[in-house]
Design a protein that fits this description.
single chain, rod-shaped
Length: about 80
């Protein structure tokens, strides 16, 4: 797998992993009883985006490694 292909796989995996972890542990402002003026009641009270970005990065690294384990031997076998 070329470095560019690895980066592309990592970025696609990162976005997929981010969308998977975004709804985990989110509580709406109405559930906490503290609605900030000018925001929607269902808006997250504490979105924890840094923590979720870290988990998405870990998940994307694992997905990229798995893709590399599968793709690299196939490229060597078929001579591409």
């Amino acid at each position: 797998m070329s470095p560019v292909g690895g980066v592309v796989i990592f970025l696609i995996s990162w976005w997929v992993c981010l969308f998977v972890v975004l709804p985990i542990g989110v509580r709406g402002q109405f559930e906490d009883g503290e609605v900030t003026d000018g925001t929607e009641e269902g808006a997250p009270a504490h979105p924890m985006l840094a923590k979720k970005a870290l988990w998405a990065t870990i998940g994307a690294a694992i997905c990229t490694a798995i893709a590399g384990i599968i793709v690299v031997p196939m490229l060597r076998y078929y001579g591409a």
